[in-house]
Specification:
Blueprint (H helix, E strand, L loop, with lengths): L3 H4 L4 E2 L2 H7 L2 H10 L6 E4 L5 E4 L17 H11 L5 H14 L3 E9 L5 E9 H14 L8 H10 L8 H11 L7 E3 L11
Parallel strand pairs: 3-5, 4-6
Antiparallel strand pairs: 1-2, 2-3, 4-5
Length: 198
């Protein structure tokens, strides 16, 4: 699956060695502590702003596979099982495969590393992690969503995520919030602090 930044032509790809030279050591320390540099897609623009993206086929929080590139899987499946299974079953399975494509969400926030340079961080999350954690943030932060830089950092790195929640409790919570209008890309900014998703 192609990274979001490259697919949408956000910035120009940059090698890790040049990125290491251009950013301050304290930011590299953050990457070494919280992220894996070789797993990141890194681009930059003409204003020397950087964009980093985590693995596009893995949820950053729960590490679940969220590869949504299912066109190839559907073709393979249809070619092999079309003769064996009836059409209704094939349609049901194709619908389930289509629903998988809605599982890859992005949480994005920006970091300022000096007076001139911003780094925009894109984290791929499964819909479960994004929905549950945004809902929890909303009810524990005065009915506001994360909107400050520090909120974005805390949401991703310091949040008690729900990956270890008991399955029955998680299912109840997911049923409660399944009709929330969570966007595919949640941008942590001031305008999104009170958007109506619930």
């Amino acid at each position: 699956m192609e990274p979001y930044l490259l697919k949408n032509k956000i910035g120009t790809s940059i090698p890790y060695d040049i990125f290491k030279i251009k950013v301050p050591p304290r930011y590299l320390a953050y990457i070494n502590e919280k992220l894996i540099l070789s797993d990141l897609c890194i681009t930059y623009d003409c204003l020397d702003n950087f964009y980093i993206e985590t693995k596009c086929n893995e949820c950053f929080l729960c590490k679940k596979n969220i590869n949504t590139d299912i066109k190839e899987k559907k073709t393979y499946f249809n070619n092999i099982y079309k003769k064996i299974l009836n059409e209704n079953i094939i349609n049901i399975i194709n619908n389930k495969l289509d629903n998988l494509s809605k599982n890859n969400k992005i949480f994005m926030y920006q970091t300022k590393i000096n007076s001139d340079i911003y780094i925009y961080e894109y984290f791929h999350l499964c819909s479960e992690c994004l929905n549950i954690n945004l809902y929890d943030w909303y009810i524990t932060h005065n009915k506001q969503y994360p909107y400050l830089r520090v909120d974005g950092y805390n949401f991703i790195h310091k949040k008690n995520n729900y990956t270890n929640m008991h399955i029955k409790d998680k299912k109840c919570l997911l049923d409660k919030i399944k009709n929330n209008k969570i966007p595919d890309i949640f941008e942590c900014n001031y305008n999104n602090r009170k958007i109506n998703m619930i």
